[in-house]
Amino acid sequence: MSETTILRRMEARDIELVTQIQEATFEGRHGAATGFTGLQLTEELVRPWSRLWVIEEKGWVHGALIAWHVVDEIHLLNVAVAPGAQRRGLARRLVEGLLSYARDEGAVQIFLEVRVDNLPALALYEAFGFEVLNERKNYYGDGASAYEMRLAISQRPALTP
Q1: Mean of the pLDDT values across residues 107-127?
Q2: Is residue 125 annotated as part of the catalytic site, yes or no?
């Protein structure tokens, strides 16, 4: 990751780029759209429980994370990094940012669903200490199953460089 990489809150000006990243990341890989549309992102920006971040290098957005924060729980809805920017630690940095936010805001746990066949995402979440709670059969529109995963914030060990 570059010295010019920053994590910041998503703004309305980011919607078009984030929509393109969502399409490139999800639609082509699984044959069924599971990413957010521009309209959905616009709606998320104004929801009081939504938290959206982007990761930017040299003024260009390369990825985004979307989560909901309700009371003391966070639900990680989506992490997407542009295909040309993957395998550079950007998704890891987005999740680190979410975990930092969760600790600062007193959240006690984070939940997420991830496709059972998304091995890179599973490895990322497991590296942070997320544990599989159960499998949700036919969770996605294309019939794919998902793992429901959970991370207890109080039990999370400190990250090592």
Answers
A1: 94
A2: yes
Question: For residues 119 and 100, what is the distance between their CA atoms, to the nearest angstrom?
Answer: 24
Annotation says 113 is catalytic? yes
**Is residue 98 over pLDDT 80?**
yes
- From 44, 125, 139, 147, the catalytic residue: 125
Q: What is the CATH code for 5-155? A: 3.40.630.30
Give me the residue spans of the domains in the chain: 5-155
Selecting among 113, 126, 135, 139, the annotated active-site residue is 113
Please, is 143 exposed, middle or buried when counting C-beta atoms within 10 Å of its C-beta (0-12, 13-18, 19+)?
Answer: exposed
Q: What is the pTM of this model?
A: 0.86
| Spatial separation of the C-alpha atoms in residues 51 and 9, rounded to whole Å | 8
Q: What average pLDDT score do residues 135-139 get? A: 93
Tokens for 77, please give them: 């809805």
